[in-house]
Amino acid sequence: MLTFAIFLVLFYFHYQLGFSEAQLQFGFYSRTCPSAESIVHDVVQHAVAKDPGKAAVLLRLQFHDCFVEGCDGSILIKHGGNDDERFAAGNAGVAGFDVIDEAKSELERLCPGIVSCADIVALAARDAVVAAKGPFYVVPTGRRDGRIANVGHAANLPDDKDPINTLKSKFREKGLSDQDLVLLSGGAHTIGTTACFFVMPRLDAQDPTINKEFFKILRSKCPQGGDVNVRIPLDWDSQFVFDDQILRNIRNGRGVILSDSVLYRDNNTKRIIDSYLGTNRSSKANFATDFAKAMVKMGAIGVKIGVEGEIRRICNATN
Ligand code: HEM
């Protein structure tokens, strides 16, 4: 009887521990779908070779996935109405769904029902970073797909017009520090573009923090009354390539969108930017390494694991 009681206690603790400690794992698919990562890699490589802008698109997709309902592929869902998460104002311009769908259909052919769409998004973002000459990092996997995608749940995404304190608190709510804020927006925007839509209000308001020469350049690219959809690099002179030039630009009043520029107007985020631009010759390497760590951290926001959620058969619909 006593032995049985001890067994029950041990079983209980084992079960509790196993369950509460359940988390993402490195190489989650190594036995169940060994080629999962290489398939995503090949699809991303191909997409970026055809269109170098796709790297930024895929990186942004993971940010917008993780900040709403956690990294659970909810942004991919398309019910057919206008109430899907992906149609939220803050998700305007988010794309890359075709690349995720392509990887998923290849994976379903080889390992049906095994690889989650949420993991494909995370792996594709990493491969996109590498394709843009950014750092390679190992992506822990095992995310499961969410079943909820509601436009209202995406109302609180970080906004380019948010004051720095709001940006900081929106990141903090997701378990991300001020340093992560600098690393993630800096590291991602080093390869991306923006629509003039986000730049024009700054120019119209004669934002005094924009370098005077740079102001003229921006105005010529995004003239008053011009097409708001014209796209310009977020990292001037260094688009498509992952590097720390964007931090230098932000420091020098050459930040393109407001949420990047404000990073140099707050004591703490300014100090963080300066730390990556120090005379230390390895600062560039640190920026890349720390960006990679921040990506892994972002990729773990609110993940669904174990028996939560599902493994979708197609990424744009729940099963
Ligand atoms: C501080 C919070 C952030 C704000 C307010 C913000 C805002 C923006 C805006 C307004 C654009 C231009 C969108 C367009 O015109 O289509 C943009 C582009 C982009 N964002 Fe962010 N962003 C933030 C953080 C991040 C993070 C954390 C990542 C990823 C880790 C990211 C990845 C990107 C990428 C890669 C692009 C370029 C997309 C492209 O070239 O198509 N952003 N962001």
Automatic annotation (TrEMBL):
Role played: Removal of H(2)O(2), oxidation of toxic reductants, biosynthesis and degradation of lignin, suberization, auxin catabolism, response to environmental stresses such as wounding, pathogen attack and oxidative stress. These functions might be dependent on each isozyme/isoform in each plant tissue.
Family affiliation: Belongs to the peroxidase family. Classical plant (class III) peroxidase subfamily.
Ranges for domain Plant heme peroxidase family profile: 23-319
UniProt-annotated site: Transition state stabilizer, residues: R60
GO molecular-function term, one example from the UniProt record: metal ion binding
EC number: 1.11.1.7
Any Pfam family matching the protein: peroxidase
Co-factor remark: Binds 2 calcium ions per subunit. Binds 1 heme b (iron(II)-protoporphyrin IX) group per subunit.
Gene Ontology process terms (BP): hydrogen peroxide catabolic process; response to oxidative stress
Catalytic machinery residues: H64 (proton acceptor)
Keyword Heme attributed: yes
Signal peptide: 1-22
Keyword check for 4Fe-4S: no
Keyword tags: Calcium, Disulfide bond, Heme, Hydrogen peroxide, Iron, Metal-binding, Oxidoreductase, Peroxidase, Secreted, Signal
Catalytic activity, as annotated: 2 a phenolic donor + H2O2 = 2 a phenolic radical donor + 2 H2O
Protein name: Peroxidase
InterPro entries reported in the protein's UniProt record: Haem_peroxidase, Haem_peroxidase_sf, Peroxidase_pln, Peroxidases_AS, Secretory_peroxidase
GO CC annotations, alphabetized: extracellular region
Organism field: Cardamine amara subsp. amara
Positions contributing to Ca(2+) 1 binding: D65, V68, G70, D72, S74
Residues annotated for substrate binding in this entry: P158
S-S bridge residues: C33-C111, C66-C71, C117-C315, C196-C222
Binding site for heme b: H189
Subcellular location: Secreted
Positions that bind Ca(2+) 2: T190, D235, D243
Cofactor annotation: Ca(2+); heme b
